[in-house]
Amino acid sequence: MATLDTSRPAAAALFAGLSLRAWKVIGLAAVLAAACVLPFTISSYQLLLANQVIVYAVALLGLNILTGYNGQFSLGHGAFYAIGAYCTAILLDKTGIPYWATIPLAGALCFVAGFLFGLPALRLEGHYLALATFALAVATPQLLKYKDFDFLTGGVQGIVISGPDTPGGLPLRSDQWLYFFCLLWTVPLFVLAWNLLRGRTGRALMAIRDHPLAASSMGIDLARYKSLTFGVSAMYTGIAGALGALLAQFVSPDSFDLFLSIRFLVGIVFGGLASMAGVFFGAIFIEFVPNLADLVSKAAPQAIYGIVLIVCMYLMPTGVMGLLRALGHKLGRLVAR
Amino acid sequence: MRFRTSLLTAAALLALAGPAFAADAPGVTATEIKIGNTMPYSGPASAYGVIGKGETAFWKMVNEQGGVAGHKIDFISVDDGYNPAKTVEQARRLVEQDGVAFLFNPLGTPSNTAIEKYLNQKKIPQLFVATGADKWGNYKDFPWTIGWQPSYRTEAEIYARYILQEKPNAKIGVLYQNDDFGKDYLAGLKDGLGDKYAKMVIKEASYEVTDPTIDSQVVTLQGAGVDTLVTAATPKFAAQTIRKVYDIGWRPLHFMTNVSISVASVMEPAGVEKAVGLISASYGKDPTDPTWKDDPGMNQWRDFMKKYMPGADLADASYVYAYGVSLTMLQVLKQCNGDFSRENVMKQAANLKDFELPTVLPGIKLNTSPTNYHPIRQMQLEKWNGKTWVLFGKVLGGAGS
Known about the structure:
The complex is a heterodimer of chains A (337) and B (401).
Chain A: H1 2-7, H2 9-13, H3 20-37, H4 44-69, H5 77-94, H6 99-121, H7 126-145, H8 150-153, E1 159-160, H9 174-198, H10 200-210, H11 212-217, H12 222-248, E2 250-251, H13 258-271, H14 278-296, H15 301-315, H16 319-336
Antiparallel strand pairs in A: 1-2
Helix pairs in contact in A: 4-9, 4-12, 4-13, 4-14, 5-6, 5-7, 5-12, 6-12, 10-12, 13-14, 13-16, 14-15
Chain B: H1 2-24, E1 32-39, H2 49-64, E2 72-79, H3 84-97, E3 102-104, H4 109-121, E4 126-127, H5 152-166, E5 172-177, H6 180-193, H7 197-200, E6 201-207, H8 215-223, E7 228-232, H9 235-247, E8 253-256, H10 263-270, E9 279-282, H11 296-308, H12 317-335, H13 342-349, E10 378-384, E11 389-397
């Protein structure tokens, strides 16, 4: 232990005797407290944006587990987001199931869908997997319009649903309640992911990413881990889709086009691959930068978006979290000196 | 203590006064009216973004000419990327953050569907939506949402009327895309033919957007003995249909949806000579049609374009659309007579009487009422002569729904 401490003098010495870890816990508590106070301090529209950021963060976490931690590329996570959203919308539209019960069902469905998709995808590596998942994203809007599913999906028209009402007795507006409802899903999902990734499983996932051959010679069952990771990843993104449907109160094929999948990938790369905190920065990026681009130019908002993205990636090649880590490192060395 | 009480009273009064004034006419001040709009400036449908640009230029012109009843128009048009989830977010931004009085001409059927419930619940007018679907005339369930252009259903009804008049013994076949767009045509033919539908329409054939060709459907229709064909197909399939019908030596009386009458994307790929005799319907003046070269109405539009949109493509019919729909909005604001409350704006939008536009065909008049939310219900038939579309006959009206 002593050697460990001296190898990282910065961590031990940092800021008034508190370790980096302690500061992280304090920071996390502060963020959580802020997240709980937030809905009472901002307007209803801003709350919608904040809620959307949270939902995107869950979706990005799903993709990051797969791509960042396990090294499997997916250009098709918009499809799982769509499946989750449609699952909730169809259940609310066709059955009497309460809205809160649709979320785990959507998650379970997406887990199965992701797992099944992961099985054949085992044969594909790197770019080839990226293309296979890309096909999924391309097919999704058309499948949702397909006539034989029309009675369920509502075809091109989509499905209009009602948002949840505040449960009796709670002094909250319905949008405030929805925000807390999303938060109640988000926090456990992040805790679960944290537990999953910091232990044995996480090390196995990263070993597969870094050196599959070495990982398998160490006794890691590649096929099992990879397909299960696909399932878990799809489940996260699917739950996000389900929450997103409650937020928009409408689903239609046009809500889940190819761009959605690409935006997710942009999100995790911008935030930082293999980083749980990074997904929030990614979510903020994909939620707000299009709006900013629209403010700058009506003629070519996508060009502005592209320029912003290029500049960001040039300045922060390892994403926001990479930059923060590098800054933390420098700061640590300064303090140690 | 007294000071505090009076301060509290003042604060309470202010708090009361604020919302009270806002509730009167939200989005309206003594000098300004805020109007919101969503457009696909980015994404798959960004070609339609020019409509938003045309409208922005239009309101700039109105402001330079002094505005409406002393009010300048603050037109806030935002990008939704043709993604309904984004439209919801942007509509709420316009209403809750920017505080617009109402939404004007948001574009897209799914986008408008996504926000119609929200806007109707809040009683915010959703005026003259930019979509051709028939559902926008549903004044009973959505009294705050009103359409503008003739719906596909109205168009089909007009074809039915023409067939009843000119060819009462027609054996009609319908080739339609299997979605809302195609089905609106079936509904319109039923409206127009009434109880004769079952007798006159001898064959309906549908195709999927995913089908590679419609050849077999065309052959089936010919085999059934159809002599009058109504085609509700998007441009690619429309071109295929025209070509196939010609190539198998079939010469039915052929009606083509006005979605697919573009010279560049339908007539030329199909073969301009193969389409001779094709019939369609229009409501607007085509900016490339030489008929309107010296038309005063279109010149008014051209002057506007020259001054406020220099360098824009004058062959793009979307600019004509933007100008026409904005003039309709302006007329509603003028009719408001200074009272721009949401109730009155909606009331006047549903109170257009024989309003004429310089950019629609002569004889077409816009009419709305509390039970008619389809402002344009008239069209004129036109025939393809191998070079251009030639209007013929009188302006025909459909009842709509």
